[in-house]
Each structure stands twice: as structure tokens, then as C-alpha cells.
Amino acid sequence: MSSIKDRVIDIIAQQAVLDPSDVSPESTLEDLGIDSLGLVESIFAIEEEFDISVPFNANAPEESEFDISSVASIIDGIEALVKEQS
Amino acid sequence: MKRVVITGAGTINALGHNVPDTLEAMREGRCGIGDLQFRDVDRLAIRIGGQVRGYEPETRFNRQQLSLYDRFTQFTLIAAREAIAQSGLEFSGELAARAGVVLGNSGGGMTTLDENYRSVYEDGKNRVHPFVVPKLMNNAAASHVSMEFNLKGPSFTVSTACASSNHAMAQAFQMVHGGMTPVMVTGGSESMLCFGGVKAWEGLRVMSKDGCRPFSANRNGMVQGEGAGIFVFEEYEHARARGAEILAEVAGYAMSSDAADIVMPSKQGAARAIKGALADARLNASEVGYINAHGTGTAANDKTESAAVADVFGAHADRLMISSTKSMHGHLIGGTGAVELLACILAVRDGVIAPTIGYEEPDPECALDVVPNEAREADVSVALSNAFAFGGLNAVLALKRFT
């Protein structure tokens, strides 16, 4: 099975309607054209993919424990959650 | 007061995926009712309905749109695209700021609700897709029409069960008639043909297992349909100034409430709505040539409706024609009045009266000319469209040939 990083990038790329090769870890969701609805849909897809629960409240994204400032921070967060919740 | 005309019509329903195909099916008296096809249908006692067939959502909408559009919203947008394209209107500036969309709908995103309940209750999942709420809300279709066509005026959804579309169109008419806006997009839609939707109706014991036969002595209940009907209501001078094609004139309407019973219809309530529509449109009863009946095919509705028509029209009741096109497309509940208004346009514009198909045996309690089984050519200048909902909420529209 591919790495967590690749699987997260695939989900984000699909949401942004881009090729996974066009999604770099430095990208922000804004760079990729993913809006607030796209974000909650991506988080849902990630939860489904890894069978985890992501602590994220759309009312206060900056206060959430889950860091969505870049693709890399999302990947780090998911790796930690997978470890913690497995 | 302003005259109100119809400058665009659109639909998708069991008879066709657009207006020309639907009108052709009505002329031919074709039946769109057949075996229902969806998951768990084998657990239902009622297995027939007017389902939209040969419909591929992926060819009409992209993946992102489909994640937000329940089936009732998809149907609405397809019908709205046809209606607005026919009208030739583009909404920008002042027109966009004033024009809105008022739609009828009863069940909201029933398919979305059904799928997600199944997922959490039956499959035991603890997570649902994040768009369940914006997908299933009753106003989703009206909102997406406003977004796709840049309609920034008053928009909302009216929910009065089987009369939803007629109440919505009456409201839109009133808004244009009173000068609030030169254009309103209106009509309605419904999509309840899923396991939970039909199961709920089954419980009420009013559904037929074998067919919709309005006014026929051997009728045994209603058959549900699905789809949408959308119209562009436009102020006459506005339409004339731009040389728009006018399909018909909306002459008036009336609404009434039985204030009696949550499911049983009332002759007096229906009669007051019919009489009120004639008065509002300043028409004599003798001018009405055709009535598109509510005609659900239930024992109670059809005899009550026939009695109400006899009361209002007196001797003229025997000269006018009344048919129920639900026999062909099924009962679209909150969307039904909208699809049925097409039959009224067919009557006043094309001089063709859509039939009541499935008619087998005369019922002395429904002794009117119900245009049995075959369409008829007739010179009709005024048509009424009846809708009498559960909850005793009635709305009747009067349509006139445009001259």
C-alpha cells in the first residue's frame, strides 16, 4: 500500500481536480483552489480513507488541534492521528 | 396590475426529459408508470411508480456538483435550464437584482436522507458526508437555481404537500402581477422514489399496486412520480418589449384551506379555491374549457373533486373537459402542479386536451367528461389547474390563451 503522504496527496489532488504530481507539500489549500466546503469534504475523505477521526471545527480552523496551513502540515497531522488511533 | 405571461417552460419527468417530449407523450396518452427500480424494492408492497428513466446524472453535472445536488435539485436545474433558455433571458444588473425563484417541494432531499440513514442505522457507520444538510434541505433546489442563473431577488421554497407547486406559482404570479419584479422563475420538483420514501407512503394505504386510474370506478389509489417543472413568469410589457415568445397568460389564482381534516379532502374547500380563481382572473365559469384535475386516483379525491366542479360550474360542468395527467406521469407530490401546468399550456396554446389514461369503468360519482384514454382536439381558451393537498391546503391557477 502507498504511503500516508501519497494517499493524502491523492485525496487533496482529487478535490482540487489536479494531477497528484501538481500537489507539493509546500502548497496551501488556498494555492490549490480548495475552499471551505472543499476542505470539509477533504477531511471527510481522509477520515474515510484512514478510518480515523480528525479534530476539526470549521468555525475556528485556526484553533483546531489539526493544522491545515499546508499540505505538509496536513500530512504530519494525519500521520500522528493514524499512529494514535490505530 | 400587471399582466403576467409565461415565456419559458422546462421539465423532466417520467414522460420525457424535456417539454416537447412530455407534450408528445401527453398527446399520445403514453404511460410513464412502470416497475420501480432501486435498492430494497423487493421489501416494498408498492412497486410501481413514474420514475425518470434513462437519466444519467454524470452527463448533466460534474462530480463536485453531484456531491451537492440531491436528485430533486438535479431535476430542478435541468428543467430550469430548459425554461430559461427558451425565455432567452439573461440575468444581470437591475433585472438580476429583482428577479427571484419560488419553488414548490414537499419531501426535500429524500434520497439523500434515505441513503444516509441507511448508512448510519443499517450499515452502522458513524460518519456521513459533510454535505448531507445542504443537499437535503427543501430550499436547496431554489438556491442552486438562484446561483446558476444569478437571480438575486426574493427566493424561497413553498411546502404544502401536493399543492406546493401551485402555491409557489401563485406566489410568483402575485409578485409579478403586483409589480415587485418583472420576472420570476417558478414551478417545483420532487424525488421521493426511494425505499424510505415509498415505504412511508405505503403506510398510509392510499397507494395502488397496479396503476393509476383517476375517475374510473375501479380506481384503487395513487401512484407516485418524480421530476420537475419550471416556468418563467414575466410581466407582459417586459416580454413584449424584447419580442419574447409567449406560451400562455397566467390569468389568476386562488388559495383556500379546508380547516377540517389532515388527510380527507373537502368539497367546500376545493370549490372555494376554484371559484376564487375564476373571480381573481375575472372569468365567467362558462369560459373554462379544460380543467387539469388534481385527480389522484384515490376514492376520496376523485369523487370530492368531481362534486366540487359540479357545484362551481353547474350545467357547464357537463360541457367542460377535465382530465388527470397523473395517470401518465404519476403524482409528483410537491412538483405535480408544475408538470400539470404543461397540460394546461398544451390545451390553450395547441388546442390538445391530454387524456385520463387507464380509464376503464364510469363512476356515477365522477360523472364528468374526463377525456378517457385518448387525447382530444378542442378549442379551449381558458384552463384551470387544481391542486388539493393533504392538510386541506388548496391552490388553483387559471391559464388563458395569449392573444
TrEMBL record, chain A:
Molecular function via GO:
acyl binding; acyl carrier activity
> According to its UniProt record, in which pathway does this protein act?
Glycolipid biosynthesis; KDO(2)-lipid A biosynthesis
Q: Which SUPFAM superfamilies match?
A: ACP-like
Which InterPro entries does UniProt cross-reference here? ACP, ACP-like_sf, PP-bd_ACP, Ppantetheine_attach_site
Pfam name, any one: PP-binding
Task: Pinpoint the Carrier domain residues.
Answer: 2-82
- The domain of life is Bacteria
Could you list this entry's UniProt keywords, alphabetically sorted.
Fatty acid biosynthesis, Fatty acid metabolism, Lipid biosynthesis, Lipid metabolism, Phosphopantetheine, Phosphoprotein
Its protein name is Acyl carrier protein AcpXL
Which organism's genome codes for this protein? Roseovarius litoreus
From TrEMBL, chain B:
- Keyword annotations: Cell inner membrane, Cell membrane, Membrane, Nodulation, Transferase, Transmembrane, Transmembrane helix
User: Signal peptide location in the record?
Assistant: none
The primary site where this protein sits is membrane
- The molecule here is called Nodulation protein E
- Show the SMART domains listed in the entry: PKS_KS
Q: In this protein, which residues make up the domain named Ketosynthase family 3 (KS3)?
A: 1-401
Q: Which GO biological-process labels does this protein carry? A: fatty acid biosynthetic process
UniProt similarity note:
Belongs to the thiolase-like superfamily. Beta-ketoacyl-ACP synthases family.
Role according to the record = Proposed to synthesize NOD factor fatty acyl chain. Involved in the synthesis of a highly unsaturated fatty acid moiety, which forms part of a lipo-oligosaccharide that is responsible for host specificity.
By its UniProt entry, which CDD domains does this protein fall under? KAS_I_II
User: Do you know which Gene3D superfamilies this protein is assigned to?
Assistant: 3.40.47.10
An annotated GO cellular component of this protein is:
plasma membrane
Q: Where in the cell is it found?
A: Cell inner membrane
The entry lists its GO molecular-function terms as: 3-oxoacyl-[acyl-carrier-protein] synthase activity
> In its keyword annotation, does this UniProt entry include Cell inner membrane?
yes
Q: Give yes or no: UniProt keyword Cell inner membrane.
A: yes
